[in-house]
Amino acid sequence: AQHTYKPSKMLRLAILAASLALSSGMALRAGDAVPKVTFKARVRDASIGGENPFTWKDVSTDALFKSKRCVVFALPGAFTPTCSSTHLPGYEKHYDEIKACGVDEVYCLSVNDAFVMRQWGLKQGLNEEEKDGSNPLNPGNFKKVKLIPDGACLFTRGMGMTSVWDTERGFGERSWRYSAVFNDMKIEKLFVEGGAVVQNSGPDPFEVSDATTMLNYLKSKK
């Protein structure tokens, strides 16, 4: 009789981890180039009218980061506890202070689509920028912290920050929690929680990617 080979659960997880490592490469470090990708954003278009006056817009990393000094913080998911209670609110609270330290813009990135990111921003009480979406530096139509939808995980893979929480939280491919300063498409500084990406981590560390740590670093470089 013919037997069908079924790999064990541990082997399947090992294969998945290996494939993710190959697709994302090693985690980037200070001095490395920022990945060049295009985000699929939703921006306001008054000509559409109705209750959902938004249209698709391609926003490139060049448009966001080239010839600029930007702060980017990434997190595992919109609407999740730490991301919603502390991570995003901290950067929103300190937005003006961060910009006063020689920063052009502050961005929050998550492996979620543009629809989810906008609704999360509204739920968080972020103020919308009531414009027509012509601003190439605003992928999420919010006035202060701008939300970047890395829905296809292309940027996260390019950063080497891919993490999977399938057995822990039922998450697929997401971003590990980190913050960074990008200076003209180069990584100036990188704060990675726990010092390295962990797959199926039980804990969700939040110690170095917070707004206060970032602000202290920026002040030290003024």
Question: How would you portray this structure in words?
Answer:
By secondary structure, the protein is of the alpha/beta class. The chain has one domain (27-220): Glutaredoxin. The protein is built from eight helices and nine strands. A hairpin with a 2-residue loop joins β8 and β9 (186-192). The chain is globular. The model has no long low-confidence stretch (mean pLDDT 88). InterPro entries: PRX5-like, Redoxin, Thioredoxin-like_sf, Thioredoxin_domain.
Index terms:
222 residues, alpha/beta, Glutaredoxin, two-stranded antiparallel sheet, 8 helices, 9 strands, 31% helix
Q: Topology, please?
A:
Blueprint: H1 9-24, E1 38-44, E2 54-60, H2 61-65, E3 69-75, H3 81-93, H4 95-99, E4 105-110, H5 114-123, E5 146-149, H6 154-159, E6 162-164, H7 166-169, E7 173-175, E8 178-183, E9 186-192, H8 211-220
Parallel strand pairs: 3-4, 4-5
Antiparallel strand pairs: 1-2, 3-8, 6-7, 8-9
In short, what is this structure?
The chain has 222 residues and is α/β, with parallel strands linked by helices.
Helix content percent band: 25-40%
The biggest beta sheet reads: 5 strands, mixed
Provide the number of structural domains.
1
Assembly status: single chain
Classified by CATH, the class is Alpha Beta
GO molecular function: thioredoxin peroxidase activity
Keywords: Antioxidant, Oxidoreductase, Peroxidase, Redox-active center, Signal
Family: Belongs to the peroxiredoxin family. Prx5 subfamily.
Function: Thiol-specific peroxidase that catalyzes the reduction of hydrogen peroxide and organic hydroperoxides to water and alcohols, respectively. Plays a role in cell protection against oxidative stress by detoxifying peroxides.
